[in-house]
Design a protein that fits this description.
74% of the residues lie in helices and 0% in strands. The protein is mostly helical and 151 residues long. Helix 1 packs antiparallel against helix 2 and helix 2 crosses helix 5. The longest helix is centred in the N-terminal third of the chain and has 34 residues. It starts with 9 loop residues before the first helix and ends with a helix.
Length: 151
Amino acid sequence: MLVWRSEYLNCSESQSAIIFGCIVVPTVISNGLNLSSAAKLIFGKVTGITKSDERKRRRKWIRMFLQNVFQDCLHVIDLVNCRYIYALRDETWFQFIFLSVSFVLIYSLDGFVMFYFHRDVQPNFIQRFLANGKMRRKSNAIEAFRSGSSI
């Protein structure tokens, strides 16, 4: 038997607010640092290495930057779902979807982001799928960074 019971106690409400703040504040700080990293990627010059090494390093930085932004945003979306969206309706099914299903979906997407950006942890079937060209490796954001960095 599957039972889901919401918690409307003062303790759980105050803990929920604390957890929300403990996630949102570092996310805002992290995304602020991401903006400074983006500026460095676009306008920064790397000296002392060859052009091909510079391109490889820049490509790796861009991948890591995009992964960080995606993962930060996913966790904030999860917290917004758990804290605010579920409270829009009182039906139990609605709250279940925005608490439990959202949690599972966000963490599944988080794992997908990890698989996509880190080739060393990708299973062989994903590597073959990406190598066959069925899914483009280069996103428009990476192309925008490259075109902006060559100016």
